[in-house]
Amino acid sequence: MSKYPHLDFSMNDVRRAGERLKENLAFEDRNLEGNAEIRLTFKIANSYRDSHVYPMRSVRLSIEHRMRTMGAGGLTAARPKRMSSIRRKLRVGTLKLDQMNDLAGCRAIMDDIQGVRAVLDAVHERFPHKIRREYAYIDQPKLDGYRSHHIIFDFCGIGRAAPFDGRRVELQVRTRLQHAWATAVEAVSLYRGEDLKHGKGDDDWLRLFQLSSAEFAYAEGCPVNPAMPDHEARVQELKELDRRIGASNILDDIKNATHYAENFVYERGRYYLIRYMKDHTVVVEPYYSAVSGSRDLGRFESEIELGDDESKVVFVEVDKVDKLVDAYPNYFGDVSLFVRNLRQICHGRNAVEYSMAPQRVARPRPQEKPDLDALKRRYTRWG
After folding, report:
1. Which end of the chain is more exposed for a tag (fewer CB within 10 A), N or C?
2. Cβ burial, residue 293 (10 Å; 0-12/13-18/19+)
3. Using one digit for the tens of pLDDT, what is the confidence trace for 156-183?
4. pLDDT (tens digit, 9 = 90+) per residue, 228-268?
């Protein structure tokens, strides 16, 4: 297991680092001694988070195996929790760093609600890791509109995996329509510089996402939050909101504003570091090694947390690079499925439970000496 990050510190070190992360860490007068202490705090926290990468990968592959066995359509992806999200969660309550359930997260994005139910049945029937807790946000949707089924696992590590025993991994199982909603919230948040995901931002946008989620649930035959108005009233209010704030047009702007950096190279890897820059440029770097990718993630995040970098960064695992946009469309401004369904609803038609937008996938790298110009491209996916 040496090719995966291990915890290099004691759990007491981890707990102390978690307490420090709650504070407003900043370089004071560029004091070198203070700088070293702050950087050590991030190093310890990163080491603990990164020690969840192997358990995270194991859970994802176990889910993927069950999906193949059932013949269920969908995709999987995984990522460690971003440091900014870790710090925000530590600040809002009494939770400790070593008690967090979602330092490692996996997603199973299924084509339809039947696929979601089938995966959940398979996990409950037999799975190599212990279920710690579940959150049924599909059958009991949140008021803000979020819908997904969460399962927290305690990783069962034996033999060479024993150092990772007990690490917690969160699995989110959702439909593509639910995923389109959740990632549209994040894409709009990135574009507008607001935190809509946590209820902070423009009231009209927050209401639009509440109502659209209820309509998506209606289309999937799933429960709608009881605080929502009925179907006809929801559709009428969505029409008025869309007209007043120009939501559909703004969502189109988000698609058009986001682009790959000119030096983006489509290389195969197992892991990918995605950086969303302030000018809406997206930079993607492939990695074959979880250790090197985690190290670079920690380096970028330390600079971001200390105010020396304004990008957003995430380290993800997918099977193929062309699945990146499907799994994490929020970082690529890809709100196509969401806006298409929003327009459907505003024109009096139900949302479509699942429809794949046409894609433009980069050609595989040739076996002979590559033409470097062919390896560069702008993000010009479907309109």
Report:
1. C
2. buried
3. 999 999 999 999 999 999 999 999 999 9
4. 999 999 999 999 999 999 999 999 888 887 765 544 445 56
How many angstroms separate the CA atoms of 31 and 38, rounded? 11
Task: Judge contact between 78 and 316, C-beta under 8 A.
Answer: yes
Q: Which amino acid is at 241?
A: L
Q: At what angle do helices 336-346 and 203-220 cross, to 10 degrees?
A: 80
Residue indicated by tokens 């990718």:
293
Retrieve residue 261's tokens. Answer: 């950096």
Extended beta strands in the chain, E state: 74-80, 104-110, 130-136, 149-154, 168-175, 259-260, 271-276, 281-287, 312-317
Beta strand ranges found along 176-301 (DSSP E):
259-260, 271-276, 281-287
CA torsion sign, 210 to 211 to 216 to 219?
Answer: positive
Structure tokens at 315: 């380290």
pLDDT tens digit sequence for 107-127:
999 999 999 999 999 999 989
The total number of residues shown for the chain amounts to: 383
| CA separation, residue 50 to residues 42, 238, 379 (Å) | 12, 42, 30
C-alpha distance across the termini of the chain, in Å: 44
Is 280 in contact with 331 (CB distance < 8 Å)? no
CA–CA distance from 139 to each of 85, 173, 214, 226, 321 (Å)?
26, 12, 12, 12, 32
CB-count burial class (<10 Å; 0-12, 13-18, 19+) for 151: buried
Strand order in the sheet with 259-260: 130-136, 149-154, 168-175, 104-110, 74-80, 312-317, 271-276, 281-287, 259-260
For residue 268, how many C-alpha atoms fall within 13 Å in the half-sphere facing its CB? 6
Q: Is 307 left (phi over 0), alpha (psi -120 to 50) or beta?
A: left
CA angle 360, 78, 267 (to 5 degrees): 45
Instruction: Using alpha carbons, list the distances in angstroms from residue 251 to 19, 260, 296, 320, 344.
Output: 39, 18, 32, 27, 14
> Rounded CA gap, 77 and 319, in Å?
8
Amino acid in the structure at residue 242 = D
| Global pTM value | 0.86
